[in-house]
Amino acid sequence: MTKRKRLDPEPCPALSPRAEAAIVRLAELLGRQIARELHEEQNRQREQKDDPARQP
Fold it and tell me: What is d(CA 32, CA 28) in angstroms, rounded to the nearest whole number?
């Protein structure tokens, strides 16, 4: 049986408001990028389904 690593019981240092805002902004941008890529992939699949001659 292997030992599991335990998280350090000490809390992480507090983030500055500026750092926290930057993290939130990056998370929003990443979410938008993922949504855009999923939407593009769905469009590609829809186009291939509608027009089989366009398949690679």
Answer: 6
List the one residue out of 25, 32, 51, 1 whose CA is nearest residue 43. Answer: 51
pTM for this prediction:
0.61
CA distance to 11, 14, 22, 38, per residue, from 6 (Å): 13, 21, 29, 36
pLDDT along the chain (56 residues), means of 10: 69 91 98 98 91 62
Q: Which amino acid is at 36?
A: R
- Token pair in block for residue 41: 């992939």
Residue with tokens 């769905």: 42
The contacts of residue 34 (CB under 8 Å, 6+ apart) are none
**Where in the chain are the domains?**
18-54
